[in-house]
Amino acid sequence: MSGNGINEKTPKTDSSIRTVVVPKICFELLKQWRAEQGKMRLALGDKWYGSENIFTTDDGHIMNPATGPKWFSEFLRKNNFPHIRFHDLRYTFATLLISMNIDVQTVSHKLDHASATTTMNFYVHDLEFTDKASAELLEEMLVKNLKMV
């Protein structure tokens, strides 16, 4: 965003233009939103500003990038959730995937990191529950494979 309004531009690197697999439910929700948006467009007629973007203002203008984080903060407050920054969702996403044993290379791709090392350095911290789970898994393997008396 600049002082002259909202600017759309291409990603910084060619590798940023990629396909990322998302859950089917996301597409269903986006289809529902697009249908709602279509109703708004019809109701406004020639007062719709013609943006084909998914996230727009109620009259079709490109949505200000600050709108999402502001909405998110308000949602957390209204629902008595602890405040986290909108960007922290990215961190939570990465941490959850890694804690579910999704390989770091896949997580790195979803985050558009140039290397898995970046993902490891910034998004993977010492997860106590995965540390405990790994100890329990090791114990299970040892008990199963060793004939302990």
Write the layout of secondary structure elements.
Layout: H1 24-44, H2 67-78, H3 88-99, H4 104-111, H5 116-123, H6 128-145
What does this structure look like?
- The structure is a single chain.
- Helix content is 53%, strand content 0%.
- It has helices spanning 24-44, 67-78, 88-99, 104-111, 116-123, 128-145.
- Helix 3 packs antiparallel against helix 4.
- The longest helix is centred in the first third of the chain and has 21 residues, at 24-44.
- It is elongated, with a radius of gyration of 22 Å.
- It starts with 23 loop residues before the first helix and ends with a helix.
- The model has no long low-confidence stretch (mean pLDDT 84).
Largest sheet: none
What order do the helices and strands follow?
HHHHHH
Return residue spans where pLDDT drops below 50 for at least 5 consecutive residues.
none
Q: Bin the strand percentage.
A: under 5%
Q: Overall mean pLDDT score?
A: 84
Structural class: mainly alpha
User: What is the tally of helical segments?
Assistant: 6
